[in-house]
Amino acid sequence: MASSERSALLTYRLCGGSGEDERGRERGRAAAAATPRKLPTFLGVVVPTLLSMFSVVLFLRLGFVVGHAGLYQALAMFAVAYFIIGMTVLSVCAIATNGALDAGGAYYMISRALGPEFGGSIGIMFFLANVCGSALYLLGLVEAVVDSFGIPPGQEVGSGIHVLPRSYWYELLYGTILLALCLVVCLHLNSSEIENGSFTGFSLATLRENLGGGYGVDYTTGQMMSFSTVFAVMFNGCTGIMAGSNMSGDLKRPSYSIPRGTISAVLFTYLVYNLLAFLMCATCNRTLLQKDYGFLRDISIFPPLVTVGIYAATLSAAMSNLIGASRILYALARDDLFGRALTLAKKTSASGNPIMAVILSWLVVQLVLFSGKLNTIAGVVTTFFLLVYATVNLACLALEWASAPNFRPTFRYFSWHTCLLGIAGCCVMMFLISPVSASASLGFLLILLLALHYLSPSSTWGYISQALIFHQVRKYLLMLDVRKDHVKFWRPQMLLMVQNPRGSARLIDFVNDLKKSGLYVLGHVELQDLDTLPSDPLQPQQDSWLSLVDKLNVKAFISLTLAPSVRHGVRQLLFTSGLGGMRPNTLVLGFYDDAAPQDSLAQHPAFTSAREELPLGFPPLRAATTPKLLSPREYVGIVADALKMLRNVLLVRHLESLDKVWELRRAASPPPSIHVWPVNLLRPDSARYADTCSLFLLQMACVLNMARAWRRARLRLFLCVEAGAMPHAQEDKLRQLLKDLRIQAQIQLVPWDGVVRLHWQAPRGPPGGPAPAEEEETAVNFPPNTTQVSDEYVCAANKMVLEQGPAPAVRFLYLPRPPADTGLYPLYLRQLELLTRDLGPTVLVHGVSAVTSTQL
After folding, report:
1. Order of strands, sheet of 673-677, starting from the edge strand that comes earlier in the sequence
2. What is the pLDDT of residues 244-284, one digit of tens each?
3. What are 28-71's pLDDT values in tens digits?
4. Cβ neighbour number for residue 624 with a 10 Å cutoff
5. pLDDT value at position 774?
6. Are 132 and 368 spatial neighbours (Cβ–Cβ below 8 Å)?
């Protein structure tokens, strides 16, 4: 391609683009209307790719490669390099044919495939790769200019055309002049004494000499060469495969042109490199190849043609990389991934050209050029490009493994095997070339990933991580077999019913500490009938609930339902919440009492410290005089339903008085405590500590104590004893049980003869009324032939619990099973209210699951 055609192509490339703000968008649309996409496959993909790959390596370093490595190893290098870029090209083609492409090339592909974290971090790496590549090609151009027009070594005054001085600062001046003229910078190369080599013409003896390796010292850097260092220089001739993709915004049909044009250019350059390597080995001795990188000019029939080729190829490749870097920088700025840091790069000219991105890229290239020599930065450039190619393969691999229905590329000549081979090849060669550069690049990439993950705004591109997580979660959920459950690996899986989050913030936070890495679902019942509504009223509420979960920093799912009553809604959620082996096994309810609800959400640290606005969508709390949405009978019915469905039940009261941050971090002595009462206080004749419910209560208290925020608290276990019941024997037995269960707790004996005496003296029902049936009494957890528990006894039990000081952070009490007679539900609830009155934060627990194990 003629240099004038190349200049026209590059000028067109510089004029494309669109603005980010409104004025920029208008200018971009005007520019797009004036210059629509029109580049065909050959001019838009094949030519830029060929010019980028046929650059400094072809003219100035191909002899260096075969001179040091020999023909066999050179061919092996080409095979390895083209294997890597071949796998990458297949991935590029697959992504490019899976949807419409915009400007940004590889950055656009990766960011839209892998999400903003990978897209932004790899975009920066690709920007640096293009910047360093531009500097590398310019260093090659400076070398060619100095070799052609520089004063010969050892002379102080030039003659003829050899008039350019060869000092460091003069070469920096040459680069600065070229930079000012064509927006590309050049730098210097100090001269060295060159030994004479010979051009033998086609010679079998010369070919035999050059078949094997003969690594020597690079005369430009003074360093000893090896396979990895030579490969690093050679690979820069293969890094132009993205030149066509970078022009995706200017192509007439990107999805059609990129696969065909890139593959054609790669195959052509592979054949040319191999053919030239063979010809050089057959015609030039090793000394000439190793000691004179510009020997092609001397052996050419028409030397000026080689000089023009060197200048045109290196300059066009450098400009192509500079333009690619500026486009990537502009795309990063336009996507706002780095906030104000790249605001300047958004500015465009009147025609929509991102001129500030070009200038910023130019400045970075100028800095890179201070490295001094082409071979010095070759390893860094290769590492950056290998990392970008590995990520392109990773993007395609992720899309393939995610099995998303919308991943349907028209290019089918790829598989996850080719992606994996491309990733492996890139990673292996990165560390073979320069372990230090590879490690530093990966570390920098990791820092960018973490920064973007936590600081970048949300995007609407879609996150491949979500698709991969879904794919893996589905697979492992199918493998989670409930028939293989074992008590050793039991964990609480909570369903917390929430009427209004404004009054339940501390309860939500407390249950989050109780879940012990188990399932946690926030359930809500909306009392409406879908038949009378035009649409589902729950969908608009989802975002508010999800935002609430994010702000409170709890690891919970959301499950909302419509039902004619709260009880029916809770049944629905108990039946349908969860999936596979991950279903709630414990129902958590706030306590039913007459206390006016308090807006604890407004006082939560998540909103008070950060001055965040409260989540929208939640109605104000009901007034104290407003009727409740469910009756006492319905509330107890929910508890009974859960127990019938073999779900454990927790009723939580007075949690609004728990200031967890102050309670658990105060410096006062003794440390905060958790009081555990694993005995049914409403049935003293069944005071056992080893039944299922008591052990479940003990387990839940232990789980809370294991949470990070509660580790400073101490468990206090209260053993209620009567006179003559050998209390020390009971204490020893309980202590052994705690030892077997690996639970550390302080045991405290509590005499309760006075309380028990009140129980046996309780009146046998209302005067003249019939005694309850034996079946009903048993269901209420009372012994046969007795009547209802008196209020006096319950108040005495409450006082006994309250007197055990100092006041704990939270108490765990035994929750009796509701009576079978629904008519006794209000009485049952009244007894629970009396039992927990003024106790502070209290959890009533009834367990139906065996949850403790003494086995390994």
Report:
1. 557-563, 520-527, 494-497, 586-590, 648-653, 842-846, 810-814, 673-677, 714-721, 746-751
2. 776 666 677 877 888 888 899 999 999 998 998 998 898 88
3. 444 444 445 577 888 888 888 887 787 767 777 788 888 899 99
4. 9
5. 39
6. yes
Percent of the chain whose pLDDT exceeds 90? 19
Residue type, 833: E
The predicted-structure confidence for 558-605, as pLDDT tens digits, reads as follows: 999 999 999 999 999 999 998 888 899 999 999 998 887 788 777 777
Q: Residue 49 and residue 184: Cα distance in Å, rounded?
A: 19
Q: Which of 145, 185, 152, 171 is nearest to 60 (CA)?
A: 145
What are the Cα distances from residue 476, in Å, to 219, 469, 581, 582? 59, 10, 10, 11
What's the per-residue H, E or C state across 734-756? HHHHHHHCCCCCEEEEEECHHHH
Q: How far is CA 759 from the centre of its chain?
A: 60
* CB of 574 closer than 8 Å to CB of 641: yes
Cα–Cα dist 803/59, whole Å: 93
Give yes or no for a contact between 51 and 268, defined as CB atoms under 8 angstroms apart.
no
615/660: higher pLDDT: 660
Q: What is the rounded distance in angstroms from the CA atom of residue 329 to the CA atom of residue 437?
A: 23
DSSP conformation letters of 460-476: SS--HHHHHHHHHHHHH
Residue 243: enclosing H or E segment and its boundaries? helix 243-246
- How many CB atoms are located within 10 Å of the residue 545 CB? 22
**272-304 burial, b for 16+ CB within 10 Å, e for fewer?**
ebbeebbebbbbbbbbbbbbbbbbbbebeeeee
Rounded Cα distance between 100 and 254, Å, is 8
